[in-house]
């Protein structure tokens, strides 16, 4: 159930957003990322399950549609505010304790590399209560364990309302395993994300 007051997200404490999606995820991200305003103060880390056999054009496609910078994550890259980072095909995306990105070829998790659980678990260790993690549409259980880690670390968890998802399996699994601070439709979620630009301070990775 969505909170009555969007400010309950405690935007003043947020330092990063992590998003996981699978089946139907391109359209779901298309409802969220282009709505981020120029000057959006937080980095956004995205894992979308992708075929490993070919390069992805997602970052270039979304960069052309978004007011914020969008690119494919690179190993050892410092995390910058107002930037959307897509995990490359066939690599796990992790957040290091020094707020740089890491790419890993460790084994797939729940048959996926990149895996949402890997991103959420590493980002929750780095950002703790400063992380907002979002589970969107998908047909696997990836993201459920990671969202539980986010909540244990004090972060905020949003889940797409399963009934509104192109594939409800992943958001439903996340809710069963971890619960959520709120469930939203994509329209509601997009509006709330945009408001973070008004209430969250610039984030340079560190909780200071």
From TrEMBL:
This is protein-glutamate methylesterase. It is an enzyme of class 3 (hydrolase). PANTHER family: PROTEIN-GLUTAMATE METHYLESTERASE/PROTEIN-GLUTAMINE GLUTAMINASE, PROTEIN-GLUTAMATE METHYLESTERASE_PROTEIN-GLUTAMINE GLUTAMINASE. Pfam families: CheB_methylest. It catalyses: [protein]-L-glutamate 5-O-methyl ester + H2O = L-glutamyl-[protein] + methanol + H(+). The active site is at 22, 49, 142. Its EC number is 3.1.1.61. Keywords: Chemotaxis, Hydrolase. The keyword Nucleotide-binding does not apply. The lineage of its organism: Bacteria, Pseudomonadati, Pseudomonadota, Betaproteobacteria, Burkholderiales. The keyword Hydrolase applies. Residues 10-200 form the CheB-type methylesterase domain.
């Amino acid at each position: 159930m969505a909170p009555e007051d969007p400010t309950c997200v405690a935007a003043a404490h947020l330092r990063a957003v992590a998003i996981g999606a699978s089946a139907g995820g391109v359209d779901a991200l298309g409802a969220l990322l282009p709505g981020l305003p120029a000057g959006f103060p937080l980095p956004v880390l995205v894992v979308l399950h992708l075929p490993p056999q070919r390069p992805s054009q997602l970052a270039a496609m979304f960069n052309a549609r978004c007011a914020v910078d969008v690119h494919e994550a690179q190993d050892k890259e410092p995390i910058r505010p107002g930037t959307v980072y897509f995990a490359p095909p066939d690599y796990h995306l992790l957040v290091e304790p020094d707020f740089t990105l890491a790419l890993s070829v460790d084994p797939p998790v729940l048959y996926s590399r990149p895996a949402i659980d890997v991103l959420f678990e590493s980002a929750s260790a780095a950002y703790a209560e400063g992380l907002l993690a979002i589970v969107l549409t998908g047909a696997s259980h990836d993201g459920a364990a990671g969202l539980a880690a986010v909540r244990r670390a004090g972060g905020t968890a949003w889940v797409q309302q399963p009934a509104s998802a192109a594939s409800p399996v992943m958001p439903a699994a996340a809710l069963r395993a971890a619960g959520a601070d709120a469930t939203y439709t994509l329209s509601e979620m997009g509006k709330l994300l945009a408001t973070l630009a008004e209430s969250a301070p610039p984030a340079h990775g560190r909780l200071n």
